[in-house]
């Protein structure tokens, strides 16, 4: 209200003190407390609306009245704002993660404006006209994100957010976003029109679903990219095409997201044109007058060719000659042999190719016909210039038929070649005098040569030349034979000789004369002469003079020649002196030539001893020598024999010398024998010649001396050597004077198990594989045959696959039985006391009884009685027990029991075929109990087959194979011998083991252990290998071995390793065996709790010579241990284990959550879950989703969901288990809540029909919370007056009193409970008074014309207005 006195023009301002939003225009809905003037006006006493207030808050309100002189303030009033719908609801933020989805995210509301948190509904609509608005959540949710999928690419969609609370809702403006572009949809193939020989028009249509902005079209021609055009172009003209060629086109439409290729267009062929690209022909001149022409097809025939034309012309001329017309069906080659072709001439050829449209011309190709030999030459003209020279003149050939390359002048020897063909005259020297020559001239081209007719000449004569000196040979003391050769160049006719002699020395005659005078001793044509009558020991020279008709020539002198000497008169003087233990020095002096009657020709030294007789020869200049290679401490005789020319000799007197003492001789190298991996035995023999007293033998090993303290030959063991190491060993023998070293013998110690084996290096690759690397051991101690990688791990027991054991010992053979040490074994039972065991059956002892098989019967009447079928029979010759009968079986006979009838057959033979005796070496063959003709047949696997095939496995279980000499049988298998090892156990069971190659088998260093293979360095324990150094086999008993499960114990348990146990107590028990398996006994101990993890392995996962291996197929997040096993021929050695853990992987086997609904809590669902069957790592979080919305995240294993759970609703839950490697979803599980009492039950609508009837109508409850079973109409004071099924929604109540007020309410029931509405009242219509006089009227007519309706009105207040 206005002040009582305005006192001027007054304005009013309303001030509100309380909460205000800090900056709502920028979505800042933080609250600030301020006093704001929100309304100013000059009016008073009016109601105004104040906006911008915060719901669910309190304001202190005052009004200030002011004029120009001052102001007054009203009293303060408090205004409490009601709860309101949420404020600060921002539009969702839209992103398009893919072309078919949009993700909407939104922030929490600025203010809830109620005591409860708001829920959200995301609404969606397309931008087309009349599009419906869709709620994307089945019901409002607290989620803040939603992914809308199955959208159309590059399409604009609108979203808005509706935030609701218990008071109302607030919705945002619509926001829109285009989905991402995708590659276009299907595009039709392009169309081709206006086809010409070199161009085609190509058109196409835009794709129906562009899914974005078409940025370009890419056109492909015959699957090759041709060009691209902008996205608004739909036609091109393809030019530059090849005529008469098939073309197909494809169009690729592209957006920024990708491209889509159309199908191919229909194939279209361009029109025919003249050929193009006609190649030049290939020309070969095979002869001087022919040309081979070959050519290829045109590069672009541009249609079907009709033929080829060949044209020719001379080089550098224009006249063209048609050579030939060639059809296309003929080979593309032609030989031009026209008569006009001449040798060594240049021609040009070209090819013309034709179609029905035109002709294509190829380029000219040049060929030169081959050269031919020149035309015949005239004989040369020869001028004789002297005895050794002539001049040859000639003319060039008239027709060279090619390029003259050279001339040849032949005599025929010499043969002179001239490369300068311009020379036509030549002077030839160095010919032989007086020699006839046949001279020709030859002219040559590359096509051949032509030779002229010969010209015969003779050179002039001259002096003989080249006469060699004569050769003189002394024959005796008075004869010298002289020979000479004819001169090589007589140089003239009439050759004859003259021999002359010159005396040089005659030592034995001081009075001799005629020295240095040439005496002619022969003239004639012979070339030898015997010069007789000469003097003893006289020296001469000779010469020859040769004559022809032109003149003489004298040869050089011959070598000096001396006639033989006489008889020596005195010997040489010899001296011998010992030099060493193997050498003696000799020296001698010789008489003069007169005393010797000649000169010394040679010396011979004759050496003699008890063990040696030899002769050594020396030349005449030697006066001393050293005789070596003698024996020490030995007396030798030496004799010098002197020979003079002529052969006479004289011996010196013998001299003697004894060699000095020396080192031994003849020591052979030692012999070596391998003792072990650390020892070698060295043996040696005495030297062939000790040459003195042996003082000791010494062994040198790799240069190190070892003293065995032995003076006689023998052997010695070298210890502490390295395994598998090569040693150089020598023996040294010594005397007091010197030592002798033998040659080296190399020896190698035996292989030993490898040492210093390091664990492998492990590299974790991913969740399922580990890389393994290792190094060779520093001490391999042998040749490494292979490396083996062993793996073990602790795995969940259900992950371990139990492999089929191939080496399990057969329990069918026998079984162990353990009894007390005072007990005996009978069959499969232990016994003690006075009992008798008969064939495994136990009987009480009886006097005079004894065993017969398994029976215990009265004893034999005679000591030699025979037991047969539980009875004793007197022994008879040629009788035996057969089929339960004691029958006669003569020699060469056999008894055969009948398997089906109680009888036996006795007949000749050595085997039974069923019940029939037969001779296996005869002509019959038994197969499946039936006899057959044996010729060319055999029984294999119960079938009769040819004898030339191989049967593996015998007549019962055998399999037939085609014979192969490189294969062998292994059980029923026929395997390659070179690459297969066949292992057979004691029971005859066989198993084959295959190698990749024969070399691998040879180097594998493996042997058989039963049916399995083990390393050669191991011992066998019933199919299992063990190290005998550190282990012992317990699979044995006092009766039989190999009946157990191949138990191997440590060597420290050797005393208790017995009866397939490592803890057998032999002081209290004995171990026997029984044939076949023992029946299992029922366990009496309670079952034990099975472990969750079991040890897997060790398994051999690799075998080879590599140094790395990748172990794949592992389980994630499991710790695996690896060991390297080094195998050589001595055995195997394993390293320590190295461990590594595979990487984590996404969990597997995630089970859906289990749920429980408590009937008393209809708004709550209890959920629980288990760890994934395969966590594959450390679980970092469990995420529980309801209807795709996350409602829980953590490491707990249960959750109580009471978030807006409604009765009789269906909810879908999904468990997501996460590790560092990722998350895995379970299968969804659907949960249905129980029924509950209905909610939002409205009272019935009441219509008064008349004074005695009221019509009731109702609607179903807003929340049925189940299946409605009944509607009940209750009347106050009367109770339930009507019950109807769920299908009826109205009822008329009759028989009421007039003008009486009645109250009704509706009760709605489900199977669980009922809910009543509020009460509604109605009054029946008036009726005429009873027992009074009054006007009457029809109450029915009144009621129908004035209906009464009772309703409950609600007042609506806004949350932001006062």
Automatic annotation (TrEMBL):
Show the SUPFAM superfamilies listed in the entry: Fibronectin type III
Q: Which residues form the Fibronectin type-III domain?
A: 88-182, 186-276, 277-372, 375-465, 466-570, 571-662, 668-756, 1151-1239, 1240-1327
Compositional bias annotation for Low complexity: 91-101
* Gene3D superfamilies linked: Immunoglobulins
> According to the UniProt record, where is the region Disordered?
82-102
Q: Which SMART domains match?
A: FN3
What name goes with this protein? Usherin-like
